[in-house]
């Protein structure tokens, strides 16, 4: 029988934090008094994370390991977990323990008591984050609200509980490069929230540098709003009006004999108009790129192995592999615990 609760955890190079995650998550899940599964999605890790997951799965029957052929990205890994999860309720949780798993019982209780399809985990205390990250996050959420009208929870990331109806709706969407923290609110399903204090990363380094945050921001804006296209139109109109005003000024000044030779005004005018044009072309390029990717209909991830159903192909069957253990990474992991990489990997 399918479990009542599935906990989806994207994993990418988290060998240091996985034992700490299991030590905190398993007592919480075991104490729920209901059936559950933990779906750990290995997003093409190139450290000992696959070996640590294999070892944890031998000691933890409810742990299910889904391995992707190649690194597909955080949002794609969550999508793969949602497609694989079987529970009536599904929780998405990052592996770094910044979002405490001890909040899951409260989420489940709120969903049952209020008949809510979505329970958001809202960070009431973000003192562990830098000032720049806190301010930029708040500004970004407000910008998304203004541009798209999407009432996404401020200070809510990817830590949430969703009903089976919500997960089925997400899985049915054909959208590529989707940002789930904005996709879920657009569904309009009944929701509530719980608050928690965001902690420091338990171990390892952040896998979300500034470049990935910028990419996520661009996907969010272009995926949920056409306001930038309208802005490009208005900028073009304003640029055209400015050019007409400059032309009128030049004609009048020429007729009055007040023209003076100089390159400053010419350079400023050309640079201004060129900047507006390049900005508009860049905005259009973002949307055209999204449409092109959508028309190609390429999957955003490829599953190589699922410990519940087995390998996707015989070549994906885990096999012993001799590897050097990193200091302090997955204590007790032996070379035989590490699955071999797929025979052919998709870039």
Automatic annotation (TrEMBL):
The chain crosses the membrane at residues 234-257, 263-288. Residues 6-165 form the Glycosyltransferase 2-like domain. It holds the Pfam family Glycos_transf_2. PANTHER family: PROPHAGE BACTOPRENOL GLUCOSYL TRANSFERASE HOMOLOG, UNDECAPRENYL-PHOSPHATE 4-DEOXY-4-FORMAMIDO-L-ARABINOSE TRANSFERASE-RELATED. One of its GO terms (molecular function) is dolichyl-phosphate beta-D-mannosyltransferase activity. It comes from the Bacteria. Its EC number is 2.4.1.83. Belongs to the glycosyltransferase 2 family. It comes from Pedococcus badiiscoriae. The keyword Glycosyltransferase applies. Residues 314-347 are annotated as: Disordered. Keywords: Glycosyltransferase, Membrane, Transferase, Transmembrane, Transmembrane helix. Its main location: membrane. This is Dolichol-phosphate mannosyltransferase.
